[in-house]
Amino acid sequence: MLATVIGFLYQFADTFAFLILSSVGLAIIFGMMGVINLAHGEFIMCGAYVTVLTARAGLPLPLAMVLGALTAGIIGMLIEYFVIRRLYTRLFDSIVATWAISLIATQGMLIVVGPSIEGLKTPFGSFDLAGLSFSWYRILLPVIALLILGGIYWLFMKTPFGVRARATIQNPSMARALGVDTDRVYALTFGLGAALAGLTGALYAPTMTTVPTMGSAFIVQSFVTVVVGGADVLLGAAPAAAVLAFIQSVLTASYGQLIGQVGLLLTVIVVVRVLPKGISGWMLRGSN
Amino acid sequence: MNWLSRFNGPQTLGEGGVFWSLFVVTVIVLATVPLYAEFFIVNNLAYFLLWTFMALGLSLIWGHAGILSFGQTAFFGLAGYGYGVISINLGDAHGLTWVAFVGALILPTLLAAVVGYFMFYGGVRDVFVGIVTLSITLVMETFMAQTAGPEWAIGTARLNGFNGMSGMPPLTIPWFGDDSIMLDGNPFYWFVLALVVVVYLALRWLVNSRFGNVLVAIRENPDRAEMLGYNVRLYQLAVFTIGGTLAGISGVLYTTWGSYITPSAMGLTAAALPIVWTAAGGRKDITTTLVATVFLLWVSQTLAVKGAQYALVLMGVLLLVVVLLAPDGLVLLVVRGIGRVFRRGQPAGSNNGAL
Fold it and tell me: Which site among A99, A266, A271 would you substitute to test the B interface, given the most B Cβ atoms closer than 10 Å to its Cβ?
């Protein structure tokens, strides 16, 4: 009994961390700019590759991870400057453009680095509890996920940048009239989203094989979390991830991985039918 | 030319004698290709043409109705697997493959209707439609990729996981006696070509009908269309379902063409290609979409000799260029460029819409 409960909690925390981490970069870009970044998975892939390559070249793992996130962030800002900025008035086209970037990045990586590179070992080892073996690293990930959510909350609620960013989403022309450089806010936001995606790739790099198409392992989960979270991303992400992680872990524990995945998708379709504005829309239903 | 007016209208480019003469000449040239060209060329042409249904469907729902679906490959794959399962179980005697053909088109039509109902009647709009449809196709890919074991079989048809299904019979027409005509090689090509012509004309009629005009009204402003008394959701559901059926036609034909279908046909890369073709074609017109699709497939295949990655990188670059520099699509850009050369000396803009 104890083993079942602990095993379930572990599974739940692991899925929760995966959903939060895979969706947070996408959620920020979508919430602040309305752009669905279909190259999200490729920023994750970029973070993972930089981490693996620099760590194997001798850089300490935490530093390699930071470097992976920074690289993804810088590439994100460049893409914002050269592509996304030109398409702000054409939302659909900006989404299609990010898909083009995704295609170029995935297939370009295949050409440049080949189908796969040697990965990293998962650090910290494992421990036994109630007859089950658990990985320390996998316990750490949910903690990091929560720290990142806290950090984002602090950034957008307590700093001058956050005030400007929130002013820009609420009313871009008014924000400009009050002297906010909205172009810079958009560039920084897109860069931040890309960097967080890169960090996700960096964090998961030691646990999975590094291949050019690895981004697609994250993309469904990230979409699902953002859709269920709904319009207010900062508010919606954590409850959405918690609900989805619970459903997926219950189904996975009882019926296996596949039913867990299918259940996740069915949940989304039902949520979309019942709460088109997602969980955050439901939480805020009284305020508008 | 009066009966032609049904196929002309504000929602399609190309009308009048020159365009339709060109249309007839193109069809005749394509239909006679097997008489003088090698089989290799005919087989490739059939391959290029069979994909156009999915692109035409996307042009209809994205370009005309403003619904951005990223998951047309879900319907493509479902139809392909559907044909495989039904035809392997029924066999190819007595024209039973046509039962498989029709059955394989009913499946994606139903899926599109169900998904469309949940989305449009649930108030899912704009980019969320793209996310939901893309998620569906990716989940279907994941699902099919893990059906490797012998327990994953429907009747006698093994699903075969990541390697995909193969060995389904081609379409056959029962003939006198025991012989039946197999639709592969040249007959298959003629069948696909005839289907392209029929679907193209049917879509031209559809988008210029009252239905098509309402779709454009919804694309331009859904709220206004609703205020004017149109049942926006019903129109969206109907057009999304038609798009699903069209993607299904491509799926069935693809499966019979190569006698195989794999889960990667529903993956992220596969899902991007219809978007590339339709965007490059300018998406709001079915003629330009048709031309762009065949042209880009030819380019991809030519490049793929060096490896599929190169062709896909080029498709990505092309999509980026089209979105940034030529939102009306490449075909119109080229046609207008040619028009400008011919009409040099006339005031600019006098050739708008002429094709």
Answer: A99
Evaluate whether B97 touches B231 at the Cβ level (below 8 Å).
Answer: no
The chain-wide mean pLDDT, for chain B, equals: 83
Q: Does B194 touch chain A (CB under 8 A)?
A: no
Q: Which of A26, A219, A220 to mutate to test the interface with B (most CBs of B within 10 A)?
A: A220
Chain A, chain B: beta-carbon pairs less than 8 Å apart: 123
Among A18-22, B251-255, B275-279, B337-341, name the most confident range.
B251-255
pLDDT of residue B351: 44
Q: Which of residues 61-80 of A touch B (CB under 8 A)?
A: none
A34 near B CB under 8 A: yes
* CB–CB contact A102 B268 (8 Å): yes
Residue in A36, A90, A273 closest to B127 by CB: A36
**The pLDDT of residue B20:** 84
CA end-to-end span of chain B: 18
What architecture (CATH level 2) is domain A2-283? Orthogonal Bundle (1.10)
User: Which helix (DSSP H) or strand (DSSP E) does residue A136 occupy?
Assistant: helix A136-158
**Do the Cβ atoms of B232 and B218 come closer than 8 Å?**
yes
Q: Set out the domains of chain B in order of their start, with CATH numbers.
A: 2-342 (1.10.3470)
Report residues of chain A scoring pLDDT below 70: 129-132, 231, 276, 286-288
A145-150: long-range contacts (C-beta < 8 A, 24 or more apart)?
Answer: A145/A16, A145/A17, A145/A20, A145/A21, A145/A24, A146/A20, A148/A20, A148/A21, A148/A24, A148/A196, A148/A199, A149/A20, A149/A24, A149/A237, A149/A238
Q: What confidence score (pLDDT) does residue A286 get?
A: 63
Q: Which residues numbered 316-335 in B keep a CB inside 8 Å of some CB on A?
A: 316-320, 323-324, 327
Q: Are A65 and A203 in contact (CB under 8 A)?
A: yes
Query: Chain A contacts of B127, Cβ < 8 Å?
Result: 34, 36, 91-92, 95
Taking Cα atoms as reference points, which of A132, A113, A26, A19 lies closest to residue A76? A26
User: What residue segments make up the domains of chain A, in order of their start?
Assistant: 2-283
Query: Tens digit of pLDDT for each residue in A85-113?
Result: 888 777 778 888 888 898 888 888 888 88
Q: Cα distance from A57 to chain B (closest Cα, Å)?
A: 28
Buried b (16+ CB within 10 A) or exposed e, B83-121: bbbbbbebebeeebbbebbebbbebbbebbbebbebbbe
